[in-house]
Queue: 3 jobs
Job 1
Amino acid sequence: MRYSYLIILWTLWCFIHSAMISLTVVTYLKNRFGEYYKYYRLFYNIISVITLIPLILYGNTFKGQILFVWDGYLIFIRIILAVTVAGLFISGSFKYDMLSFFGIRQIKSGKFSSLLSASGDIDKTGILGVTRHPWYLGAIIFIWIYFRVMYFSTLIVNIILTIYIIIGTLLEERKLVTELGDNYREYMGRVSMLFPGRWIIAKIKSF
């Protein structure tokens, strides 16, 4: 029964979190609140963190059967993946506007864009020429390597969060296509959404 509650609570959190940034909800809120919509990104971030805390605390109250342990030679693989995650987040932070990410720039300028760049334009250089969403890719990897010991409860949460991130990425892509049109479609055709398959293939062919 506790696992059922865990699944329901995490699924509900993911659903609400995604719904809050869906195109339908965002469009409605923009029309409904006008200039006050500039506070929404900050509000969204705060609510996301506050509602996440009790889920984490509840999940820590039970573990279940041990399914996997990062041990032995797997430790080196975990280290490599951890370095990859750090690289994705750090390189992404150079491309994204952190003020926009936290919702501060929207409050200061009153301008909104699904892109996290200060200008609102598409940046296709650096890590964004490798994967369109380096932070989401980094988050997926981080989820699976964070705990050295994977319990049954950990597996449940990891699967739910991975599916959530992928669905959230697709929803964000939909908004970006609506906002930026053919310019973003061209970017989608050239750079992979998450796993940099096209970049890897291009590098192999260049040798």
Job 2
Amino acid sequence: MSTLFLIRHGQASFGKGDYDKLSEKGVIQSRIVAGHLLATGTEFDVIYTGTMLRHRETCEEYLSELKKRGIAAPEIISTPDLNEYDSKKILTAIVPELISEDDSWKEHLDKIFTEKKSFQLLFEKVMERWITGAYADTGIPSWNDYLSWVNRSIDEILVNHGKGKKVGIFTSGGTIGAFVKRALDLSDEGALKLTWQIVNSSVTRFKCTTQSLMMATFNEHVHLEQCAEKNMITYR
């Protein structure tokens, strides 16, 4: 049996020109979780990452800690199947439909980058519609498309590393939710709601064999609660 450690990326640059890049706080969070993993003896036999910049930058902090301690880095496998869904394309496709049905949503759209409440209300509404498929076909990948990509990566990891390995996986909240959905057989709505709770740089663990995936822990972030830095718990 193997253990999979899914590490959510540090805080990204929400509302900035390049959202995908870690914020200053995101870099600190990534450094903290890297130190925590190694302090608790977590050295990976192999590392998987998505191809997004925030995944790679979070992983790089772990690799930097390995180097400081004179520990050789394991094999690193990068795959787009572990990427987050494209929220920008989803919002662009669905928000106009919401506004055409109820123009009060325009007020939240105008404040999407300035008020957290407006962003969350609008984002949750859009995502709920996306997972049901109840929107005009604009060619954006569907929720089921997204799940198929994540499940393909899960199958690959289980087959290749499902016996006696520690596997580090640097990814995003949506992907972690898809892993949990598969392990616990959650509904689409349940998996989506779960993702709202996933903290930046948190660790979620699974046990696995070559054929099965089992939940072990969810959203561990004691490393952020215990650190000297203030206000390190973030969700975006």
Job 3
Amino acid sequence: MKVETKKVITSSNPRKAIIFALFCLLTFAFCFTPANAQHRDFLTDSEIELIRDAQEIDRRVEVLVHAADRRFGVLKIDVQTPVAKKESDAWGELPKGERIELLFDIKRLLQKAIDDIDNISERPDSAILPDPEEKHPKTLAELFPKAVRTLAAAAARYKPALQKELDITTDQMQRGPILDSLESCELIIESVTKLPAEVVKQKKKN
């Protein structure tokens, strides 16, 4: 087999040699793009610092959702982002990258949010709670449902936009992370239905 392979590569027919070389280059390019996107850090340095500071699950999910919103914005995909106050300088520059890289970022941000919530669900004792000396510190029973609902609200915004992108995207490499993100959104939206009804606190009358 080694002899035959060597014979093909070193053939006296220059056309065959050129075709073989092009085939190798195209194969390499095809494999490199998605692998590079998947191994790329899906958070900027500033975002990593914000994640480290957001120890409580509700705050962490809020950071992950905003990080995803930023990437949708860079991609110019309208996900009906809520109007909010000006982003603080702590967020740093907007994320950069090729379209497929940013799509993989979104996929991984959604997966991290799901994983963080699942970890708390399976090991509630590991949850980091606000300082008990704070005035009216919230309990995990309050923080956990809030985190799930925050993520579900984002998933409900993302789902129609992702479906639209899936319908118009012909690049199979890009369709992969879009499909994965869609599945994550559906899982998130379904999970919120398992929460107890939200209790709306009414303001006390004077």
